[in-house]
Amino acid sequence: MAPIQAIYWLWNAWVVSWVIAALWSGRTAVRGPRWSQFWRDVLAMSGAAILIGFSAPFPGSRGLLAPLWRTPTSMAWGLVALTATGFAICWWARLHLGQLWSGVTSRKADHRIVDTGPYRLVRHPIYTGLLTALLAMALLKGTGAAILGLAVAAAGLTLRARLEEQFLRAELGPEAYDAYSRRTPMLLPFAPRIG
Known about the structure:
Elements: H1 3-21, E1 28-31, H2 34-53, H3 73-97, E2 106-108, H4 125-141, H5 144-172, H6 174-183
Antiparallel strand pairs: 1-2
Helix pairs in contact: 1-3, 2-5, 3-4, 4-5, 5-6
Protein backbone atom coordinates (compact mmCIF):
# COMPACT_ATOMS: atom_id res chain seq x y z
CA MET A 1 0.00 0.00 0.00
CA ALA A 2 1.31 3.45 -0.89
CA PRO A 3 1.26 6.25 1.71
CA ILE A 4 -1.47 8.17 -0.14
CA GLN A 5 -3.66 5.05 -0.16
CA ALA A 6 -3.10 4.66 3.58
CA ILE A 7 -4.20 8.26 4.14
CA TYR A 8 -7.35 7.73 2.05
CA TRP A 9 -8.05 4.56 4.06
CA LEU A 10 -7.69 6.53 7.31
CA TRP A 11 -10.05 9.25 6.02
CA ASN A 12 -12.67 6.67 5.00
CA ALA A 13 -12.43 4.88 8.35
CA TRP A 14 -12.75 8.17 10.24
CA VAL A 15 -15.79 9.37 8.23
CA VAL A 16 -17.65 6.06 8.64
CA SER A 17 -16.89 5.86 12.37
CA TRP A 18 -17.82 9.52 12.88
CA VAL A 19 -21.18 9.09 11.14
CA ILE A 20 -21.96 6.03 13.27
CA ALA A 21 -20.90 7.86 16.45
CA ALA A 22 -23.29 10.71 15.61
CA LEU A 23 -26.05 8.45 16.93
CA TRP A 24 -24.52 8.87 20.40
CA SER A 25 -25.55 12.37 21.35
CA GLY A 26 -27.65 13.88 24.08
CA ARG A 27 -30.97 15.64 23.75
CA THR A 28 -30.72 19.09 22.16
CA ALA A 29 -32.11 21.91 24.29
CA VAL A 30 -31.37 24.85 21.94
CA ARG A 31 -30.24 24.88 18.31
CA GLY A 32 -27.83 27.50 17.03
CA PRO A 33 -28.13 29.57 13.86
CA ARG A 34 -28.51 27.13 10.99
CA TRP A 35 -27.91 29.27 7.89
CA SER A 36 -24.71 30.91 9.06
CA GLN A 37 -23.35 27.51 10.12
CA PHE A 38 -24.40 26.04 6.76
CA TRP A 39 -22.22 28.46 4.79
CA ARG A 40 -19.23 27.87 7.08
CA ASP A 41 -19.69 24.12 6.66
CA VAL A 42 -19.90 24.50 2.87
CA LEU A 43 -16.62 26.41 2.95
CA ALA A 44 -14.90 23.78 5.13
CA MET A 45 -16.24 20.86 3.08
CA SER A 46 -15.37 22.54 -0.22
CA GLY A 47 -11.79 22.97 0.93
CA ALA A 48 -11.63 19.36 2.07
CA ALA A 49 -13.12 18.20 -1.25
CA ILE A 50 -10.53 20.18 -3.21
CA LEU A 51 -7.76 18.74 -1.07
CA ILE A 52 -8.94 15.16 -0.84
CA GLY A 53 -10.60 14.68 -4.20
CA PHE A 54 -9.16 17.08 -6.72
CA SER A 55 -5.56 17.89 -5.90
CA ALA A 56 -3.58 14.81 -6.89
CA PRO A 57 -0.63 15.52 -9.15
CA PHE A 58 -0.40 13.50 -12.34
CA PRO A 59 2.28 13.26 -15.03
CA GLY A 60 2.45 16.41 -17.12
CA SER A 61 0.02 18.30 -14.87
CA ARG A 62 0.22 22.10 -14.85
CA GLY A 63 -1.10 24.97 -12.83
CA LEU A 64 -2.60 24.12 -9.46
CA LEU A 65 -2.14 20.38 -10.07
CA ALA A 66 1.58 20.62 -10.81
CA PRO A 67 3.70 19.13 -8.02
CA LEU A 68 5.47 21.79 -5.94
CA TRP A 69 7.74 19.20 -4.25
CA ARG A 70 8.30 15.48 -4.02
CA THR A 71 7.87 13.84 -0.65
CA PRO A 72 10.44 11.13 0.16
CA THR A 73 8.88 7.77 1.10
CA SER A 74 10.03 7.86 4.72
CA MET A 75 8.55 11.33 5.17
CA ALA A 76 5.35 10.23 3.40
CA TRP A 77 4.86 7.48 6.00
CA GLY A 78 5.49 10.07 8.70
CA LEU A 79 2.63 12.08 7.20
CA VAL A 80 0.43 8.97 7.36
CA ALA A 81 1.28 8.79 11.08
CA LEU A 82 0.46 12.52 11.42
CA THR A 83 -2.94 11.87 9.79
CA ALA A 84 -3.62 9.06 12.26
CA THR A 85 -2.58 11.38 15.10
CA GLY A 86 -5.04 14.02 13.86
CA PHE A 87 -7.88 11.51 13.89
CA ALA A 88 -6.82 10.25 17.33
CA ILE A 89 -7.13 13.84 18.60
CA CYS A 90 -10.62 14.05 17.07
CA TRP A 91 -11.68 10.84 18.78
CA TRP A 92 -10.12 11.80 22.11
CA ALA A 93 -12.13 15.01 22.03
CA ARG A 94 -15.32 13.28 20.83
CA LEU A 95 -15.15 10.65 23.58
CA HIS A 96 -14.31 13.28 26.17
CA LEU A 97 -17.40 15.33 25.21
CA GLY A 98 -19.64 12.29 25.35
CA GLN A 99 -23.28 13.17 24.81
CA LEU A 100 -22.53 16.91 24.72
CA TRP A 101 -21.16 16.47 21.17
CA SER A 102 -23.30 17.59 18.26
CA GLY A 103 -22.75 17.87 14.52
CA VAL A 104 -24.54 21.21 14.55
CA THR A 105 -24.17 24.22 16.80
CA SER A 106 -26.45 23.53 19.76
CA ARG A 107 -26.73 23.43 23.51
CA LYS A 108 -27.49 20.02 24.95
CA ALA A 109 -29.53 19.37 28.08
CA ASP A 110 -27.21 19.85 31.09
CA HIS A 111 -24.59 21.49 28.86
CA ARG A 112 -21.51 22.93 30.54
CA ILE A 113 -18.12 24.24 29.55
CA VAL A 114 -15.78 21.29 29.09
CA ASP A 115 -12.24 22.35 29.99
CA THR A 116 -10.60 19.02 30.76
CA GLY A 117 -8.82 16.42 28.60
CA PRO A 118 -8.09 17.81 25.13
CA TYR A 119 -10.27 20.84 25.93
CA ARG A 120 -7.64 21.83 28.48
CA LEU A 121 -5.18 22.29 25.56
CA VAL A 122 -7.42 23.93 22.93
CA ARG A 123 -11.04 25.05 22.79
CA HIS A 124 -11.73 23.12 19.55
CA PRO A 125 -9.65 19.92 19.58
CA ILE A 126 -11.83 18.18 16.99
CA TYR A 127 -11.04 20.96 14.51
CA THR A 128 -7.39 20.84 15.55
CA GLY A 129 -7.35 17.12 14.76
CA LEU A 130 -9.06 17.63 11.41
CA LEU A 131 -6.65 20.42 10.46
CA THR A 132 -3.73 18.16 11.41
CA ALA A 133 -5.04 15.40 9.11
CA LEU A 134 -5.72 17.89 6.30
CA LEU A 135 -2.24 19.42 6.66
CA ALA A 136 -0.63 15.97 6.42
CA MET A 137 -2.52 15.21 3.21
CA ALA A 138 -1.68 18.61 1.70
CA LEU A 139 2.01 18.11 2.44
CA LEU A 140 1.93 14.61 0.94
CA LYS A 141 0.16 15.71 -2.24
CA GLY A 142 2.31 18.80 -2.59
CA THR A 143 0.26 20.67 -5.20
CA GLY A 144 -1.09 24.20 -5.31
CA ALA A 145 -4.61 22.76 -5.30
CA ALA A 146 -3.82 20.82 -2.12
CA ILE A 147 -2.56 23.97 -0.41
CA LEU A 148 -5.62 25.90 -1.65
CA GLY A 149 -7.94 23.16 -0.32
CA LEU A 150 -6.18 23.23 3.05
CA ALA A 151 -6.50 27.03 3.25
CA VAL A 152 -10.22 27.00 2.35
CA ALA A 153 -10.97 24.18 4.81
CA ALA A 154 -9.00 25.94 7.56
CA ALA A 155 -10.96 29.15 6.95
CA GLY A 156 -14.27 27.28 7.12
CA LEU A 157 -13.36 25.45 10.33
CA THR A 158 -12.05 28.63 11.96
CA LEU A 159 -15.24 30.51 11.06
CA ARG A 160 -17.35 27.64 12.36
CA ALA A 161 -15.37 27.62 15.62
CA ARG A 162 -16.00 31.35 16.04
CA LEU A 163 -19.75 30.88 15.40
CA GLU A 164 -19.88 28.08 17.98
CA GLU A 165 -18.08 30.27 20.49
CA GLN A 166 -20.52 33.15 20.02
CA PHE A 167 -23.40 30.73 20.56
CA LEU A 168 -21.87 29.05 23.62
CA ARG A 169 -20.90 32.41 25.13
CA ALA A 170 -24.54 33.52 24.87
CA GLU A 171 -25.97 30.20 26.08
CA LEU A 172 -23.53 29.35 28.89
CA GLY A 173 -22.71 32.84 30.07
CA PRO A 174 -20.06 35.29 28.87
CA GLU A 175 -18.19 35.38 32.18
CA ALA A 176 -17.55 31.64 32.29
CA TYR A 177 -16.84 31.27 28.56
CA ASP A 178 -14.57 34.31 28.43
CA ALA A 179 -12.57 32.98 31.38
CA TYR A 180 -12.13 29.68 29.51
CA SER A 181 -11.12 31.57 26.33
CA ARG A 182 -8.50 33.58 28.20
CA ARG A 183 -6.72 30.51 29.53
CA THR A 184 -7.12 28.17 26.52
CA PRO A 185 -6.02 28.79 22.91
CA MET A 186 -8.56 28.32 20.13
CA LEU A 187 -6.89 25.75 17.82
CA LEU A 188 -3.13 25.56 18.41
CA PRO A 189 -1.95 24.15 21.74
CA PHE A 190 0.44 26.43 23.63
CA ALA A 191 -0.24 29.27 21.15
CA PRO A 192 -1.06 32.77 22.28
CA ARG A 193 -4.78 33.27 22.76
CA ILE A 194 -6.58 33.78 19.42
CA GLY A 195 -10.09 35.16 19.57
